[in-house]
Amino acid sequence: MLCHDTRRCVHPSDVEACDGLHDGDSCTSPSVAGGVCADGVCIVIVNCGDGVIDTDLGEVCDDGNQISGDGCSADCRSDESCGNGYLDVQEGEHCDASNLASETCESLGYSEGGTLACDESCRFNEEDCRSLCGNDVREPDEICDGSDLVGQTCEGLERGGGILGCLSNCQQFDTSGCDIQAVCGNGIIEAPEACDGSNLGLRDCLSEGFYAGTLGCASNCSSVDTSGCTGTCGDLQINGPELCDGGDLGGETCLSLDYYAGSLACAVDCSSLDESGCHGTCGDTVCEPSSAETHLSCPGDCPGTSSIAGGRNQSCAVESDGTAWCWGKGEYGRLGNGSTTTSFIPVQVSNLTNAVTISTGDFHSCAVAADGTAWCWGRGEYGRLGNNDTTDASVPVQVSDLTSAVLITTGDNFSCAVESDGSAWCWGDGLNGQLGDGSLANSSVPLQVSGVTDAVAIAAGQAHCCAVMTDGTARCWGEGWEGQLGNGSLVQASTPVNVAILTNLVTISAGHFHSCAVASDGTAWCWGDGTYGHLGDGLNLDSNIPVPVTDMTNAVSISCGEDHSCIAASDGTAWCWGDGLSGQLGNGFNVNASIPVQVTGLTNIESISAGHWHSCARTLDGTGWCWGDGSDGMLGNGFDVNTNVPVQVIGLGPP
Fold first, then answer.
1. What three-state secondary structure class fits 593?
2. Above 90 in pLDDT, residue 588?
3. Does residue 192 have a cis bond before it (omega within 30 degrees)?
4. Adjacent-strand bridge partners of 217
5. Dihedral of the CA atoms 632, 636, 641, 642 (nearest 10)?
6. Where does the pLDDT of residue 6 fall: very low under 50, low under 70, confident under 90, or very high at 90 and above?
7. Other beta carbons within 10 Å of 503
8. Is the pLDDT of residue 301 over 80?
9. How far apart are CA 211 and CA 204, in angstroms?
10. Has this prediction a pTM greater than 0.85?
11. Rounded CA separation 281/287 (Å)
12. In order of start, what are the domains of the chain with their CATH numbers?
């Protein structure tokens, strides 16, 4: 069909279609339908404006002439040739947007295929097409390939005679077999040249590892010149897609990434920050009181550090609102409610509304408040309340000199605390060196424990104390006659000694004459007096170095009573071993056990505490449970009778 203009088209063989017809009459032929006779020929009117693109009649668009400025002209030709999806060959387009004219990488000669695209100038973008170098077929992005030299010869390259070859990268001719070798400056890359003048092969700043700029060629053609390129990983400045570069971390630090300390670095490819040098964060399963982690601020890392505590004849707990509650024997004011009266149910500790952790010993109790102050109450003998006095107190009195306490523990006649800088402090009875300052003297104010500067956990027993350091090691001091210091000896130490073997500890506890700890892999270890099987290793023998608790691989927290021990496991169960004559193992029997036995009926355990002859636990719902010796109401259930299975403490947890 021939078009006389963009609206009138006729097929030469259709002249006869109008024979005998007048102008304006309809005409039809094998090649023209819906035509009109004009001047004796059958023509068809191209319907520009009907909204239908008649590509065989020359239309490249047809918007019905209803929209202006959309790139489609009144004669159904595009006003914006490139980018409208219509292939306009007359405008020199090879493709247009997603319209690739049915071409592919393969159809363009790339044997390995790939993805063909169209660039902004409507030319093919072949960057993602893949050729196969070495198949003796020169493909579009190759200068040569094996024996396929595109007809080129040494003579054609002005290299005299000889045999021309192709380098293994298919990007340069191999002129080593030519009579005349490479000439730098002729614009032709010849072996062993890396480039020649403006001829850089397929190399650019991006291929050389830079982000922008103009690549050049060295004057001797031996290497490319990157001096005109800008931005690369290793230039110590963040540019391009980099998140960091060397020491330039974009203002980020370990602290800004919610770690407590450490050194942040940049990954070798500048694509990410290297946090391996940072340490300490809520959620890393390590309780770090030196960084102010507590049970309330980070319960996942610090299970049970503030939840519940069992002592000699009393127990205490901290509620989520910061109030503290105690129950049991009231002698010496150790319930902290201003009275010396025994209570079979919890009573609120007076004047303490922001408590975060609590501990109870023989005749006194202590707590840490959210502001870092420490408070104690009960018997004041030996100065164990730490307020520079030896007088009993039935309400909390502030411990002297401590302003950033994060952990606290109470032994028989002394107390210890850890401050936020990791230092440890003790006060009270020092006869066996349990204050850790190198002396055997009592003190009614805190004394700094010698050499402990990075403690993350601390526990006081009858007359000894142990702490875990940030590196996972443990140190103990005080009475050691039963091997409770764990250093392989049976002598006391007035300054800390290293616990043998263990290096990956997360928490620790001290009992009457034994100690126990939990490692980061969930194993539990005990040492010291094992008379009642309370080392948990299946024996009734003492050990002055740590021994593993039998079958324990998922321990989270641990607590030592007088002659028994208990753990809270990661699956929410509770297990105890050792002296069970008062029912303190909680398994429904009143017998000793030298390996862990499961506490009956308790699930979702959050924390656990072993008292002298009883035990208590806190569940995730906030309720409290105790079992064992119930004299003086220390089980908190309103009675003073023993029980070998857990009973609920009245009033703890949600109403």
1. strand
2. yes
3. yes
4. 224
5. -110
6. very low
7. 11
8. no
9. 10
10. no
11. 9
12. 289-648 (2.130.10.30)
Q: Which of 177, 192, 202 is nearest to 223 (CA)?
A: 192
Q: 90 — phi, psi (to 5°)?
A: -60, -25
The answer to whether 601 and 337 are in contact (CB under 8 A) is: no
Are the C-beta atoms of 355 and 365 separated by less than 8 Å?
no
Residue-wise pLDDT tens digits, 601-641 = 999 888 899 999 999 999 988 899 999 999 999 999 999 99
Assigned token pair, 450: 């010698």
Query: Which residues lie below 8 Å from residue 595, measured CB to CB, with a gap of 6+?
Result: 533, 536, 537, 538, 549, 550, 551, 577
Locus of tokens 């105890």: 576
- The neighbour count for residue 556, using CB atoms within 10 Å, is 23
Which residues partner with 229 through β-bridges?
213
User: What is the pairing mode between strands 2-3 and 8-10?
Assistant: antiparallel
- Over the stretch 191-227, which tens digit does the pLDDT of each residue have? 778 899 999 988 999 888 899 999 999 999 989 999 9
Picking from 87, 123, 131, the residue whose alpha carbon sits closest to that of residue 106 is: 131
Sorted by sequence, the CB contacts under 8 Å of residue 395 that are 6+ apart come out as 333, 336, 337, 338, 349, 350, 351, 377
Using CA atoms, how far apart are residues 620 and 556, in angstroms rounded to an integer? 14
| Whole-angstrom distance, CA of residue 302 vs CA of residue 456 | 10
Q: Each residue of 149-206: pLDDT tens digit?
A: 999 998 888 788 899 999 888 988 888 888 877 788 989 887 778 899 999 988 999 8
**Neighbour-count burial for 297-335, b at 16+ CB within 10 Å, e otherwise:** bbbebbbbbbbbbbbbbbbbbbbeebebbbbbbbbbbbb
